[in-house]
Design goal:
single chain; mainly alpha; 57% helix
């Protein structure tokens, strides 16, 4: 599956910024889910 992050007109990657602000364990889980979706 192709997974795309959303970049605003100003160049901000909102999904990555959101995941980076989460507590470490939740951030890691979010990135793991995205990677898992990309591999299927």
């Amino acid at each position: 599956m192709n997974v795309f992050t959303y970049t605003t007109a100003g160049g901000k990657d909102l999904i990555t910024e959101y995941l980076d602000r989460l507590p470490k364990n939740e951030s890691v889980e979010g990135f793991r889910i995205i990677k898992s979706l990309e591999n299927h």
